[in-house]
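Extended Data, panel c. Modelled sequence:
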Amino acid sequence: MSTAFLLTALIICLTPGTGVVYTLSAALAHGPRAGVVAAAGCTLGIVPHVLATVTGAAALLHASPLAFRVLTYAGVAWLLVMAYSTLRDRDALVVPQADSPGGGAPARPSSRVVGSAVLLNLLNPKLTLFFFAFLPQFVHEGDPHPARRMLMLSGVFMLMTFAVFAAYGLLAASVRQQVVARPRVLTWARRVFAGSFVTLGARLVLAAR
């Protein structure tokens, strides 16, 4: 495996995007476990894009503007839902009471965290096109098993994605108490996350034009 692939993949994973924003939001709202679970969900959301790339469905998306736009607008709609949910969920970021059992806020079900994370990445057609353009560059010409090679590279990328996103989540959770203890900070945090989801949705729309 080339150093160029590892460095490029690391830079891509570190670049803030939809998954990072959601992981940070989950970690600040519900603690380190939710951050790690969100990271796992975002990583699982990559699987369909990898399969689409390997089986050739990415070529169809690339050749069909209609297919690309339909998937893009579905992704934008979900991002707007996430923005709205972030703004109205005023009970998510709360200060744990010292005498509460376990000393923590009620945890959001892991299935909901994972489900939202998977949908965020699943409904982002740029990921499919990214893998379609990115992975073949690291498959040697004449490779007898290009699909196997691409699956291996995808596996490494997914492991790297989980590690980076989980680190983001744990870092956010480590300052959670300092953040949630200040109501004004909480209000602005919700607005920033909601605005980030809207901005990412706008970028998807622009990319589809």
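Residues 39 and 163 are 8 Å apart (CA to CA). This feature is highlighted in the accompanying rendering.
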